[in-house]
Amino acid sequence: MAATAAVPRASSSKTESYVDTKRRDDVRQANIIAARAVADAVRTSLGPKGMDKMIASANGEVIITNDGATILNKMEVIQPAAKMLVDLSRSQDAAAGDGTTTVVVLAGSLLKSSLSLLSAGVHPTAVSDALHRLSIRAVDVLHGMAIPLDLSNRDALVKSAATSLNSKVVSQYSSLLAPLAVDAVLSVVDPAQPDIVDLRDVKIVKKLGGTVDDTELVKGLVFDKKVSHSAGGPTRVENAKIAVIQFQISPPKTDIEQSIVVSDYTQMDRILREERNYILGMVKKIKATGCNVLLIQKSILRDAVTDLSLHYLAKVKILVVKDVERDEIEFITKTLNCLPIANIEHFREDKLGFANCVEEASVGDGKIVKITGIKDMGRTTTVLVRGSNQLVLDEAERSLHDALCVVRCLVNKKFLIAGGGAPEIEMSRQLGAWAKELQGMDSYCIKEFAEALEVIPYTLAENAGLNSIVIVTELRNRHAQGEINAGINVRKGQITNILEENIVQPLLVSTSTITLAAECVRMILKIDDIVTVR
Amino acid sequence: MGRNNDRDGARRWRLAADVETRRSDKDDLVAVAETIKNTRLLKDEATEEKGDRARMASFVGAMAIADLVKTTLGPKGMDKILQSTGRGHNVTVTNDGATILKSLHIDNPAAKVLVDISKVQDDEVGDGTTSVVVLAGELLREAEKLVNLKIHPMTIIAGYRMAAECARNALLQKAKDNKQDPDRFRSDLMKIAMTTLSSKILYQDKEHFAKLAVDAVLRLKGSTNLESIQIIKKAGGSLKDSFLDEGFILDKKIGIGQPKRIENAKILVANTAMDTDKVKIYGARVRVDSMAKVAEIEGAEKEKMREKVQKIINHGINCFVNRQLIYNFPEELFADAGVLAIEHADFDGIERLALVTGGDIASTFDNPESVKLGHCKLIEEIMIGEDKLIHFSGVEMGQACTIVLRGSSSHVLDEAERSLHDALCVLSQTVNDSRVLLGGGWPEMVMSKEVDELARKTPGKKSHAIEAFSHALQAIPTIIAENAGLDSAELISQLRAEHHKDTTNAGIDVISGGVGDMENLGISEAFKVKQAVLLSATEATEMILRVDQIITCAPRRREDRM
Q: Beta-strand (E) ranges in B19-131?
């Protein structure tokens, strides 16, 4: 740095942009401090005994969560470097779905070490290069620790989903939710492409009321809607023939503006009659195909159904669910293995879907529509999440999402790794040893960063109210003796073989944590100026 | 209030001046001169700066801009955060000079000139956008010293011109051309791509990306039309997962119930309304007297749409891509006919698709024979990361290809796209003008040496300017070294000594922190880039040096400004 320091500054500039740029070191320092503040904010929510945060948003909404990505998303930070940390947790969410807190805490710790390296006079690019080498090497270490997994080994999958759920508000339900998440993901895996899971094929329906215990996996479809039975239609249909329609059963409406001119009293009667006939005609056509359940897409142009058409449909015992969103149509047709029908003329039997039972069930204070026993069901699944209040419900959904992601990671990359701080300590140990073989700046930086990795076990212990120094030093000791799977057992408050405790997580989560955190820290290090632009 | 008074005062004052002017018609010349001096030529709030003050203002402004981007130069250059003051306070992290400069608010006219040359450099050759600004800034810094020594700006300009010419000749002599030998040419391209990328975010994976870029550019077979290289950004994965794909990828969904895979596709690209064909006369409406008639009209409208769809299908196609929405009804018709219909493809996507598949964009469908259809071997749905996209492979235009960029966040992706774009531009230029130079400050040192010799031979004050030019050239390796945290003074003197030997490949090796052989290290730059940097920087400097008066026009009313 010494050589770069002597750069003359033409400070009396006329450009507006130049007024609020600061000196480069200050900028870097300010960035690092801001980013670390973000990391500190979520630090206490790490681990099974981590605490939750309550977030009150500007519009009075309250969220209670333990999910790093959610906390950071709602924090609305302004400082650009701090924003990058928020993005970091978002990327982790996208890449692995879990470990969103860990990645931020790790980045914060790496930044702390970088700051001390910078103040020791190391050039930022040297720090950044060392960090890159470290992240590559760390991934190798993790691969070395990983345990291959067979997808048929359901127990192992459940264990890792449970590890993810253990740190959440809903941890007491992990025995229920973990197998549920595993079943949900496994049921959508396409045997033709066993490595790819599209989580959009898992639909999560939230319904207030009951407890999280009542959460269930539905082999079929669930709508958070009532059956339209204002006219007294059926609410339960067995041997259902289901049609998904995209047209409307209501009086005709043209695209061009139209008006019906009524010139005398008798015409009024006629028009009413015609309207009735028109709708009756449509209903008859529908009935003719044997259809007895209608799912009607929401229409913005006109009413999808009118009272009159509901009345007729009820008469012919057709169950109607209206206001289905257009973007749900694809999921529905995929599940029911049917085709959407956009015009009454095309209403044919071969476009219908079949199910054993369609029924309206009342849950809590609301009602839902369940379609079960679908014939030739597509590879989709629905999870009905229940909770006693909105906050729990939302958090349960987020936790379930994380658990689903964990299982998806395992499907993508079939390796498990121990949890409980074991991988971090092992990385720290091996990288520390590696640093001794290196020479020059790299060695110096990597040694520093290797120590920074210990932040995860420290935080885990701290959050669990343990004596972190005693625990981490013991952990280090055990790893040095070759027990690579020794980790912090938060429940017992001591060091045990973490694999025996069934605390496992997907390898992908750990690797993406370290690579993403390193990438983000390197980006922050390389910034030497903040310029305000249009 | 105070302002109004001022204005009234000014008006009165001007009236007086008018009267005086009329009177002065008959008076002697001295009085005329006196009056003109007092007359207000400019509007109220307009200002002017003259002579040294004006020159100083433009020097300072231009140098400030150069200093701003200076630290991004070279493989160890730093990045900048661009924080937008507009909506959303978007944050961009970049190392690209043109991007930084483009987004600045600038008030200083000379600074604007520099921003413009960087923009031109970006359009022309795509790379060297920072170098050109830094070189211009250094030339101005040297010029300022000379002006302070009371050397006339015109003399400086003359000297600079001679020096630039000489420097260019020096480069011309040293440039190598390997066009005849395909293997070496390819390795040249690889080297250039790697050199360009090494100062960017893609540095760690530069070999991977250099290969991507070279492959993509070689597919173009000499055309500089970068349109047919499509870059798609998809968050997730790491930069290493980025790949080159022959064919075209459209980020859209296939309609429900339609085939997901088509071989030997015949594609009709269209821009037509597939919701309803409305009568587009305002206020048109129909009057009917019964419900049945309304139903008839509705039926007729449906029938019309059905006819339209039938006409489209009659083109003998099995893939239909529309720029506008396709409503449920026609979508179903297409599905029934087994035609793959893609709705709402954006303008850019449509044009590119028409270009690469060799079809026309149609909007009427009455004459199937006159519409040129696009063709491709295979259309299928592929999954990248979390998203499903439509892939057209085996397209008509063989050079078309798509680069799919993967990265952890949108910042990374945006910056990766900018970097890759730079590399592609440079490579496509190099394919046409295949002369290459070494990098790492080598060309600057070569030029500087020649220019120095010229200075020694040239009599007169011009030689000072020529010498100054050589200094400015040396500033570039100095900055590269400084940005890497190296001892620049020591390195430059070593480098200069090295260059006084007859032939040398010495340049700054930023990685090891010393002087190294650029040929062995594989650091190359395109001749065209260096030449453009040299010439446009000199021209911009000349333009700024010529200025001796800055007139700032009165700003328009507040509400007009942003």
A: 47-50, 79-84, 91-94
Give the integer Cα–Cα distance in Å for A422 and A510: 11
Q: Residue A533 forms beta bridges with which residues?
A: B84, B104
Strands (E), B289-386: 319-322, 340-342, 361-362, 374-384
Specify the 3-state DSSP secondary structure of A397.
helix
Q: B285 and A17: CB-CB below 8 Å?
A: no
Point out the residue among A10, A330, A530 whose CB comes nearest to the CB of B64.
A10
State how far the Cα of A169 lies from the Cα of B190, in Å rounded to an integer: 53
SS3 A257: strand
Q: Please name the residue that has the structure tokens 């006409």.
A: B311
Q: Is A14–B107 a contact, with Cβ atoms under 8 angstroms apart?
A: yes
Q: Do B287 and A263 touch (CB under 8 A)?
A: no
- Over residues B186-200, the pLDDT tens digits come to 888 888 888 888 877
* pTM of the predicted protein model: 0.77
List B525's β-bridge partners, or say none. Answer: B437
> What are the pLDDT digits (tens) for A450-459?
999 999 999 9
Q: Which residue has the higher pLDDT, B377 or B469?
A: B469
Cα dihedral sign, B44-B45-B49-B55:
negative
Whether ipTM > 0.95 holds is: no
Per-residue pLDDT band for B331 (boundaries 50, 70, 90) equals confident
SS3 A368: strand
Please judge whether A342 and B484 are an interchain contact, meaning their C-beta atoms are less than 8 angstroms apart.
no
Closest partner residue to A4 among B60, B327, B485, by Cβ?
Answer: B485
Query: Which chain A residues touch B287 with a CB distance below 8 Å?
Result: 258-261
Q: Nearest C-alpha of chain A: how many angstroms from B397?
A: 31
Burial of A428 (0-12, 13-18, 19+ CB in 10 A): buried
Interface size A-B, in CB pairs within 8 Å, comes to 246
**Hey, is B384 helix, strand or coil?**
strand
Cβ under 8 Å to A: B residues 281-310: 283-295, 297-298, 301-302
For residue B409 the two structure tokens come to 């966040």
Please identify every stretch of chain A with a pLDDT value under 50, giving residue numbers as ranges: 1-22
Mutate to test the interface with A, among B55, B291, B510 (most CBs of A within 10 A): B291
Asked if residues A422 and A128 have their Cβ atoms less than 8 Å apart, the reply is no
Residues in chain A: 534
Rounded Cα distance between B147 and A82, Å, is 46
Q: Is B257 in CB contact (< 8 Å) with chain A? A: yes
Residue A440's Cβ-side half-sphere holds a number of Cα atoms within 13 Å equal to 10
- The tokens for A144 are 């070395």
Flag if B482 and A254 touch (Cβ within 8 Å): no
CB A435 within 8 A of CB A446: yes
> Which pLDDT value is given to residue A8?
38
Residues linked to residue A358 through DSSP beta bridges, in sequence order: A237, A371
Asked if A4 and B67 come within 8 Å (Cβ–Cβ), the reply is no
- Higher per-residue pLDDT: B37 or A176: A176
Confirm if B403 and B392 have CB atoms less than 8 A apart: no
Residue B107 to chain A, least CA–CA distance (Å)? 5
Distance CA B160, CA B467 (A): 9
Contact between residue B532 and residue B451 where contact means Cβ atoms under 8 Å apart: no
Q: In this complex, is the C-beta atom of B88 within 8 Å of any C-beta atom belonging to chain A?
A: no
Integer Cα distance of A41 and A54 in angstroms: 12
Question: Strand order of the sheet with strand B229-235?
Answer: B229-235, B401-407, B243-246
Taking residue B231's Cβ as centre, other Cβ atoms within 10 Å add up to 17
* Closest chain B residue to A93, measured at CA: B236
Strands B248-250 and B387-395 come out as antiparallel
Helix and strand totals (H; E) in chain B: 18, 20
